[in-house]
């Protein structure tokens, strides 16, 4: 029964029309749905009673025998007509059809005489208003203008353009306006073509630019642009927003007029006509706006639904158009009024009906309307009601327990209680809309519920429903009660010692305090019973200094928040100033200037130390580099000496040691081209130690001037730069009294060859 064919809906609705004076007019209306269906008509919201002039046909259409714009009694057949259809399930209303009389005014713009030089451009215009829009044709010398001539351009708004004028274009022009209401002729205008084509340069100039147009989708727009100049300018079109104009449905009329067929909303914009001098950037521009409107149409239709009693029904109706349409809801043909349980949201696109009952069963219509047109869609709400459901719960009472708790109690229904499976308590702030309601389920044997987590000093509404497996009972009576007021919570308190006689009490403002009007501050010496205070502080104050205190005793500080319901619990802190006094005595104030100077001196010393350290590192690196170089040179020299033949043992020194290179002078003489050792550099890099110098002196004095070694030179070399050759001493008799200076020195142990 809920199929499409059973729904009461329009198959044909009346449409806008233009009627001719004294001619008949028919407005069509066809409806489908479950019979019987009654159809009636309204004009401007008033019911039309059948009469000789207007009556309803058997198919539901309205017939007006002789349409009259103004009747003898001052009434008019013009207006907005709609068709209403009603059956057992409800009533629907059609869209409004606007009926206007066909008319034509007098010309308010006539063509004007013109004198134009040969090769130029001539433009004539005539303008007239009428319904429907008159068709304007042009005559030259009482004959229709030849539209096959490409130099002649006729625009829909009554404009005639003639380009590339010639002598034969001279003549008398007038226009003829025609529609279903009348035919009218304009005044005549003479065109005179003078002289020959001029070769004088003229800047491009736009004689007439595009007008601002407001049209409806699927219509045709003509944007006029006529330009002159010598040489003849090139006319081009663009959009001010930079978007391409496109090619589909676009046509150029004459030398520069833009025609757009089958308009869409996307064609809306500002169009720019440009007249360009060929081969240059010299140009002139003119612009006009095009607004394309679209009548309202539905994107989403409302759907018929069936809902049990006490539930929520939601209808959604989404429409689009340009400008955006306004949405209105009807209930059985009457404008729907919102209430506590009927809400409109999302710019009237969503209709919500809360806690439905049998009185809400009806046909709901969504009307979408804008300046370009209107449309409607309907849906039916069926309320399901089962026989034998419980009656509403009785004796609902609500009692305030605390600032956040209310006790709700009730009695079971009077009828049909056997099938009850439970109760549902509906809770809502009294100031909130119905959609903010929430529920709590209760077992069937429970007749009271403690509602917690409520807000202090707030009114709440409650009602109960009894539920069975087949549906819910009607709602009980609504009871409203308010929670108690609540005192503020304890504030957080902190104490800071400022000096030996002053402390600062600070606290944090917090939403956890709740609503409060201010704070009260008390303080006292702990051995006294009497407080100083209260010091009343505003709710936005978060600190207070307590001065003129005695540093030798301990103080108790107490803070609490208060409001119209009373004082909240207090926060207590204890503070002693004695430690502050002792620290002041033990740690006198520092000499800041002296400390600053010491800090500066310490900083300077650190910087100097860093510089010295870096310098030492650099010198060490240089020392290692040059030392390595000198060592390489000495090692090479020693290697060369080791390669020379050794002298006979008899010629060796009595010391038992022979320095390699003792005959250095002879070798130097033999090898004049060899590398010379820079002794000064070696002595500078490897200075001899005092022990080495003494050893060298001893060795030198051991030689007698008569010995063959008188020409031997001893090189001052470090110990690691010469070789020591181990020799076995000859066995000699022991001389306990001393040793012969010429005798070999005793061997003190093996010597490693270095």
TrEMBL record:
Main location (coarse class): membrane
Domain Ig-like, residue spans: 8-100, 105-192, 204-287, 295-382
Domain of life: Eukaryota
Compositional bias (Polar residues): 643-657, 689-707
GO cellular component: membrane
Keywords: Disulfide bond, Glycoprotein, Immunoglobulin domain, Membrane, Repeat, Signal, Transmembrane, Transmembrane helix
InterPro entries assigned to the protein according to its UniProt record, in alphabetical order: FN3_dom, FN3_sf, Ig-like_dom, Ig-like_dom_sf, Ig-like_fold, Ig_I-set, Ig_sub, Ig_sub2
Subcellular location: Membrane
Name of the protein this chain belongs to: Immunoglobulin superfamily DCC subclass member 3
Originating species: Notiomystis cincta
């Amino acid at each position: 029964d809920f199929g499409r064919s059973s729904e009461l809906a329009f198959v044909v609705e009346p449409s806008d029309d233009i009627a001719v004076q004294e001619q008949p007019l028919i407005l069509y209306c066809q409806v489908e749905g479950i019979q019987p269906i009654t159809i009636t008509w309204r004009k401007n919201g008033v019911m039309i009673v059948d009469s000789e002039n207007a009556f309803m046909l058997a198919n539901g259409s309205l017939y007006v025998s002789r349409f009259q714009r103004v009747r003898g009694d001052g009434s008019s057949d013009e207006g907005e007509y709609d068709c209403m259809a009603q059956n057992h399930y409800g009533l629907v209303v059609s869209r409004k059809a606007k009926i206007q009389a066909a008319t034509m005014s007098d010309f308010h713009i006539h063509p004007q005489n013109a004198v134009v030089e040969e090769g130029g451009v001539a433009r004539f215009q005539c303008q007239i208003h009428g319904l429907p829009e008159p068709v304007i044709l042009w005559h030259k010398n009482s004959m229709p203008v030849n539209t096959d001539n490409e130099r002649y351009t006729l625009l829909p708004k009554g404009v005639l353009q003639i380009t590339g004028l010639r002598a034969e274009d001279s003549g008398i022009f007038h226009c003829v306006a025609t529609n279903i209401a009348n035919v009218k002729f304009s005044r005549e205008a003479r065109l005179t073509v003078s002289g020959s084509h001029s070769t004088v340069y003229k800047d491009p100039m736009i004689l007439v630019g595009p007008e601002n147009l407001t049209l409806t989708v699927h219509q045709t727009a003509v944007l006029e642009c006529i330009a002159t100049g010598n040489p003849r300018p090139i006319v081009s079109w663009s959009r001010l927003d930079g978007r391409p104009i496109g090619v589909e449905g676009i046509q150029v009329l004459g030398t520069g007029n833009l025609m757009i067929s089958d308009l869409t909303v996307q064609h809306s914009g500002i169009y720019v006509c440009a007249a360009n001098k060929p081969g240059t950037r010299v140009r002139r521009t003119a612009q006009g706006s095009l607004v394309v409107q679209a009548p309202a149409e539905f994107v989403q239709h409302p759907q018929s639904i069936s809902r049990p009693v006490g539930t929520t029904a939601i209808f959604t109706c989404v429409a689009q158009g340009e400008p955006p349409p306004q949405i209105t809801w009807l209930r059985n043909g009457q404008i729907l009024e919102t209430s506590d349980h009927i809400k409109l949201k999302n710019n009237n696109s969503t209709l919500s009906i809360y806690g439905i009952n049998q009185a809400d069963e009806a046909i709901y219509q969504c009307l979408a309307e804008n300046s370009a047109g209107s449309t409607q869609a309907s849906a039916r709400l069926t309320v399901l009601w089962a026989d034998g459901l419980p009656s509403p719960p009785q004796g609902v009472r609500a009692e305030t327990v605390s600032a956040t708790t209310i006790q709700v109690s009730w009695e079971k229904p009077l009828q049909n209680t056997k099938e009850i499976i439970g109760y549902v308590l509906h809770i809502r702030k009294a100031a909130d809309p119905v959609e903010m309601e929430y529920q709590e389920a209760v077992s069937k044997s429970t007749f009271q519920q403690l509602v917690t987590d409520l807000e202090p000093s707030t009114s709440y509404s409650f009602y109960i429903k009894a539920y069975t497996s087949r549906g819910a009972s009607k709602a009980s009576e609504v009871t409203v009660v308010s929670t108690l007021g609540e005192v503020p919570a304890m504030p957080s308190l902190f104490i800071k010692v400022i000096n030996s006689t002053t402390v600062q009490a600070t606290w944090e403002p917090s939403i956890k305090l709740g609503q409060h009007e201010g704070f009260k501050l008390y303080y006292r010496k702990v051995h006294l019973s009497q407080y100083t205070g209260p010091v009343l502080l505003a709710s936005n104050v978060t600190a207070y200094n307590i001065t003129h205190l005695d540093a030798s005793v301990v103080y108790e500080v107490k803070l609490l928040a208060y409001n119209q319901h009373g004082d909240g619990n207090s926060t207590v802190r204890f503070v002693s100033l004695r430690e502050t006094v002792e620290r002041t005595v033990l740690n006198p104030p520092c000499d800041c200037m002296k400390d600053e100077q010491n800090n500066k001196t310490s900083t300077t010393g650190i910087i100097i130390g860093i510089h010295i350290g870096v310098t030492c590192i650099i010198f060490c690196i240089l020392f290692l580099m040059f030392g390595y170089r000198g060592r390489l040179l000495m090692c090479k020299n020693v290697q060369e000496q080791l390669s020379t033949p050794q002298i006979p043992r008899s010629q060796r020194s009595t010391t038992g040691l022979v320095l390699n290179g003792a005959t250095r002078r002879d070798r130097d003489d033999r090898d004049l081209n060899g590398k010379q050792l820079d002794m000064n550099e070696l002595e500078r890099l490897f200075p001899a130690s005092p022990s080495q110098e003494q050893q060298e002196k001893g060795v030198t004095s051991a030689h007698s001037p008569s010995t063959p070694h008188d020409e031997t030179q001893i090189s001052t070399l470090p110990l690691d730069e010469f070789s020591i050759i181990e020799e076995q001493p000859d066995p000699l008799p022991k001389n306990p009294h001393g040793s012969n200076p010429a005798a070999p020195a005793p061997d003190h142990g093996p010597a490693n060859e270095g």
